[in-house]
UniProtKB/TrEMBL annotation:
Residues 441-623 form the Fibrobacter succinogenes major paralogous domain. Residues 144-202, 208-276, 279-343 form the PEGA domain. It holds the Pfam family PEGA. Residues 535-555 are annotated as: Disordered. This is Major paralogous domain-containing protein. It comes from the Bacteria. Residues 541-555 have a biased composition (Polar residues). It comes from Cyclonatronum proteinivorum. InterPro entries: Carb-bd-like_fold, Fib_succ_major, PEGA. GO terms for molecular function: carbohydrate binding.
Length: 625
């Protein structure tokens, strides 16, 4: 037996009448409306005549009747209604298949009549007239084996062996039981034809395969779960021949339902594919590190979200910014794009410093210099949050102070710098032949530039050629420089890239009193910072504004502020690795074609010592003599 007791097993023809079945056992509707008159509907002709030229693919019903407001319906629906009630002629176009016609009018009981088999261009004619109130229904009996089979006459349920009252005429009979072959029949009820006997034939269960594109989808037959789709995309089971309601469901997918008809013969294979039950939310958020929450759950690092269709609460927040909260609607298979900029809380900074020509930097929590100036200043609309104020001046010890800008408030800060020098540097800045000023930093007994060299001339004022073309660069055997990808904006941040011929030029690349560091100078620097394995992190600037994530080990505790300026090769590949690597020349040769250099990497806290082709372009840092 089938494992779903409530299932209905029937033949393909029964699909035409499912909408008429109800789940209660009563005698026909006509026997319950004693206060209404009945319609006497009689079939008078059935011809195959092409009388409706626009509907040659369909059948037609013509009814002659004096009953006002007569309405005709069908279990398969009406294709077209061409009735002329004013002259008592009703014409409807219907499908050329067996069906039940319903005749009704105000003050009259419904009357149902089966059409029997129909063909295209066939016309069935009826008359409909009121019956007298004294006319009686006919008592009939349906005897069915097995007795507990489900029996429906004109869509009304009855019991086997029970006497029921039916009007005379053609009646449709449907009989079914699980494990038996269903019967669909039309009978003529009359005074002489009052008993009808039926016996259902037993049938065997048959194998059925349900296929789907989603592994793990749950298979539900007539409301009962019958397993899941396996990794081969199939669920096999056994069912009795008949009609079933099949549903496939899976989390994250749109459930699909359909009626399947299992036959005694045939492959009985049914495919139901599911589609993703998602829409997309594409977010562009400024600032990029703001916290995004969907229904109060954080979606860290995600900016293209897959969500089930529905309504959500979107919240975006960041300290010192005005938070955003809004309701969004996600539609199936659609992308909602939102470009959101949070409004920063701002305050003001009133700053004074002695000496008055001191250079001042305002550095945010990521290590980025957001403003710089000399002497006193009044800054308005500064984003609220923590900052570092750094002041440097010739002949004075550098000063740093931690401050917090508060919403709609003015912070007043004064710094009095102490005279003196730190370590090996006699000055906090150095200026090159072009007038570029660089910060300096003492590390051990060495004084280093804290920025990459950006000069376009040698120490004696001679020009260093700017060579832009890749072919020209590869042919060089003399000094030259280039901006990364020939963009001046890169020079403002990362300085220039020089070949080793410029480093080794006797006219001097660094300012007076400074030199390009030797391989030994670099080794001393590494030792002063704890050795090559950890010195890289102490040299690199912090954050990921310039360095690619993760910028491993970066603390910049040396204040060297190493930046990833990339490099230029001496072949057609040209520029590479901006943001990933910083590479600096030494003045020491390794061989005829190579010289020693140092490399820092975004994914490593160490310093790498290597040799580079003299024709390549790398950054330069100068060290004090």
């Amino acid at each position: 037996m089938k494992s779903t007791p409530s299932a209905v097993s029937c033949t393909v023809a029964l699909l035409l009448f499912f909408s008429l079945l109800i789940a209660e056992s009563i005698t026909p509707q006509l026997s319950h409306a004693q206060d209404l008159r009945r319609l006497d509907v009689e079939r008078i002709a059935s011809n195959r005549v092409a009388v409706f030229q626009d509907y040659t693919r369909y059948a037609a019903v013509i009814v002659e009747s004096s009953v006002p407001n007569l309405r005709i319906n069908s279990t398969l629906g009406i294709v077209a209604d061409l009735s002329e009630p004013a002259i008592g002629v009703y014409r409807v176009i219907i499908e050329p298949r067996p069906q039940i016609l319903t005749f009704e009018a105000p003050g009259f009981m419904q009357t149902r009549i089966g059409t029997g088999p129909l063909q295209a261009r066939q016309v069935v004619e009826f008359t409909a007239k009121p019956q007298s109130r004294s006319e009686n229904l006919i008592s009939v009996i349906f005897n069915v084996t097995p007795a507990d089979a489900r029996i429906a006459v004109d869509g009304e349920l009855i019991r086997s062996g029970e006497t029921v009252a039916l009007p005379a005429g053609t009646r449709e009979v449907q009989i079914e039981r699980e494990g038996y072959r269903a019967i669909s029949d039309f009978v003529e009820v009359s005074e002489r034809n009052i008993q009808f006997n039926y016996r259902l034939d037993e049938i065997d269960i048959v194998p059925v395969r349900i296929r789907s594109n989603v592994e793990g989808a749950r298979v539900v037959i007539d409301g009962t779960e019958r397993g899941e789709i396996d990794r081969s995309g199939t669920r096999g089971l056994f069912l009795y021949p008949g009609s079933y309601a099949l549903q496939l469901t899976q989390t994250g997918f749109v459930s699909q339902s359909r009626t399947i008809v299992v036959s005694e013969e045939g492959d009985n294979e049914f495919t139901v594919n599911l589609t993703r039950n998602i829409g997309e939310l594409a977010l562009t958020v400024t600032p990029a590190d703001a916290t995004v929450l969907i229904n109060r759950e954080e979606v860290a690092g995600q900016r293209l979200l897959e969500l089930a269709p529905g309504r959500y609460r979107l919240e975006i927040e960041k300290e010192h910014y005005e938070p955003l909260s809004e309701t969004i609607d996600i539609a199936l298979n659609e992308r909602l794009s939102r470009d959101i900029t949070l409004q920063a809380h701002t305050g003001s900074l009133q700053f004074n410093v002695t000496p008055g020509d001191a250079r001042v930097e305002l550095i945010d929590a990521t290590g980025r210099t957001v403003n710089e100036w000399n002497g006193l200043s009044l800054l308005r609309n500064v984003k609220a949050g923590p900052y570092t104020l750094r002041a440097t001046a010739e002949g004075h010890l550098p000063e740093e102070q931690q401050i917090v800008i508060v919403l709609d408030e003015t912070l007043r800060v004064s710094i009095l710098m102490e005279e003196g020098f730190i370590g090996a540097c006699r000055s906090t800045t150095i200026t090159d032949i072009d007038g570029n000023t660089y910060r300096t930093v003492s590390i051990g007994d060495q004084c280093w530039m804290a920025e990459n060299l950006n000069t376009s001339r040698y120490r004696d004022g001679s020009a260093i050629p700017n060579v832009r073309g890749n072919t020209d660069w590869t042919r060089l055997n003399s000094g030259a420089w280039a901006y990364y990808r020939n963009r001046r904006s890169n020079g403002r941040t990362y300085g220039k890239l020089y070949n080793w011929h410029a480093v080794n030029d006797r006219r001097g690349l660094c300012p007076e009193g400074w030199r390009v560091p030797s391989d030994r100078d670099w080794t001393i620097l590494e030792d002063n910072l704890g050795g090559r394995n950890i010195a890289g992190g102490k040299l690199k600037s912090t954050g990921t504004q310039h360095w690619r994530s993760p910028n491993t080990g970066a603390t910049n505790e040396s204040a060297f502020s190493a930046l990833p300026g990339g490099w230029r090769s001496d072949n057609i590949r040209s520029f590479s690795n901006l943001g990933s690597n910083g590479l600096w020349w030494s003045s020491s040769e390794d061989s005829t074609d190579y010289a020693w250099l140092r490399v820092l990497d975004h994914g490593d806290a160490s310093v790498s010592r290597g040799n580079g082709n003299k024709g390549y372009g790398f950054s330069v840092r100068c060290v004090g003599d």
